[in-house]
Amino acid sequence: VSLNPPVTKLANAFAAQPIQNGWSTGPLLWIKQHYPNVIKHVGALVGNVPSVLNSWAGELHALDSLGFDVTTEVTYAPLDTQFTSDVIKMQQAGVQLVLLDQADVSAIAHFVDAMQLQGFHPALITSSGAAYDGSFISKAGASAASNVIVDLHESLYLGQDAKTVPGVALFDHWIQVAHPGYTPDIFSVYGWSSAMLFVQALRKAGADPTRASLTAQLKTISSFDADGLLAPDDPASKQPPACFLIAKVVNGAWQRVTPSKGFICSGTYLYDSAVP
């Protein structure tokens, strides 16, 4: 899975979860439905690196199209750990929805800690998945961590969905066989699901596969979910997933909020044609 959309677009590149310039509207529609009063008072924390800025441009395009107003945008350098002034800036601006979609797990943990110390309690704090990490609760503390909801295009692969999703159970089992005690992250999921996509195409390529026959079969896989580990997407046409789930930290542990199983498949993937 390439984090660089131009690589995704190459004719011989296929991703288990394609990443393009744009954003999934489903989670934003969910916010708009459940927290309608926050969408005109949005603050965002954005990592100041090119790939993140491109991703933010796609998300901002989706936000604008759905009537959200980002009133406060702050950027940070990759090694920044102090966010007090940024939190105060959002607090003074009357921000009611804090978007941490374009931040890494360490920055998110430091940011929500700073929010708690400043007594800044907006109506909603969201992350598009980076916070769903085995280190987040310990880094932020259970109290601060519980203020964040995450929308994910993957099942709860840290173990919470292992009893109901075969793909999660298989992934979690073999992670521990290969590396006992290791806590997987999204890149572990990308590696595992990429191998599943490769093997699926390899089997379809027949008893005497070639690079050409493998590529031809990859071009036919228009629906892929890694046995429930991922939300459905379309590797053949490089279409990112639109389905999602909502999770949060409750009593110091991750749990699903909605739906009770599977994914919510509302909204679409909105491409941003302004980003090359």
Short overview:
This protein has about 280 residues and is an alpha/beta fold. About 35% of the residues lie in helices and about 15% in strands.
Describe what you observe in this structure.
It is a single chain. By secondary structure, the protein is of the alpha/beta class. It has ten helices and nine strands. The protein has helices at 5-8, 26-34, 50-65, 84-92, 105-117, 136-140, 142-145, 166-178, 186-204, 211-218, and strands at 22-24, 42-47, 70-76, 97-102, 124-127, 148-152, 245-250, 253-258, 269-271. The protein has a seven-stranded mixed beta sheet, sandwiched between helices. A two-stranded antiparallel ribbon has the order 1-9. Helix 3 links the parallel strand 2 (42-47) and strand 3. Helix 9 packs across helix 10 (211-218). The longest helix is centred in the C-terminal third of the chain and has 19 residues, at 186-204. It starts with a helix and ends in a 5-residue tail after the last strand. The relative contact order is 0.18.
Principal-axes geometry comes out as globular
Strand content: 15-25%
Biggest beta-sheet profile: 7 strands, mixed
The number of helical runs is 10
Helix proportion range: 25-40%
- Please tally the β strands and state the result: 9
- Unreliable runs: none
Radius of gyration: 19 Å
How would you classify the quaternary structure? Answer: single chain
The overall pLDDT average reads 96
Read across the widest sheet, the strand sequence of neighbours is 3-2-4-5-6-7-8
Structural class determined from secondary elements: alpha/beta
Report the order of strands and helices. Answer: HEHEHEHEHEHHEHHHEEE
The N- and C-terminal alpha carbons lie at a distance of: 19 Å
